[in-house]
Design a protein that fits this description.
The chain is mainly alpha-helical. 54% of the residues lie in helices and 0% in strands.
């Protein structure tokens, strides 16, 4: 599988620009994981950190779920990988954790996110709750935050991938 990444058009309208950059950063994370074995994808960046590429993908599945389900539309199906006992569970991997499952879960959460956002305007406000504030968020704010979240973690993914096999690039 080769992930094709496309930047949004330079003259796109605001919504297309926001959605385009979010998709670009989603594609970038997938690209950073390509061609690696499950063992490599579970490889922690540097001790004592448990941060790994598979962990980042699992984390972003949680983030997609949190912002586009729980916050945006008030649907709270609960966490996927973490729990009250293990708040960083998405990063605590075992030999049983596979790329197939992590990638599939992440893609499923992205699909739900797209469906929930599709019928809303950028100025529409969220109806769910966040652990940050009781104030609602605009869809525009959520898109911008998600772009920031992916961009930050894609920087981590760059370093982890380089440590695993020396691959570098954007």
């Amino acid at each position: 599988m080769t992930t094709e990444r496309r930047e949004p058009a330079q003259n796109a309208d605001e919504r297309a620009m926001l959605e385009g950059w979010l998709d670009y950063h989603r594609q970038t994370l997938a690209h950073k994981c390509e061609g690696l074995s499950d063992e490599q994808l579970r490889t922690a960046s540097v001790q004592p950190s448990p941060l790994s590429l598979m962990g980042l993908v699992r984390h972003m599945a949680e983030v997609e779920r949190g912002w586009f389900r729980k916050v945006l539309v008030g649907d709270d199906p609960g966490p996927i990988y973490y729990s009250d006992e293990d708040r960083d569970g998405e990063f605590h991997l075992t030999e049983a954790d596979t790329w197939r499952e992590a990638y599939g879960t992440w893609q499923a959460e992205i699909a739900v996110a797209r469906r929930h956002a599709a019928g809303l305007a950028l100025d529409d406000l969220s109806t769910g709750s966040s652990h940050f504030t009781d104030e609602p968020f605009s869809l525009r704010w959520i898109y911008t935050h998600m772009i920031e979240e992916y961009a930050r973690h894609n920087g981590h993914a760059d370093l982890i991938r380089e440590r695993i096999d020396g691959a570098t690039g954007d």
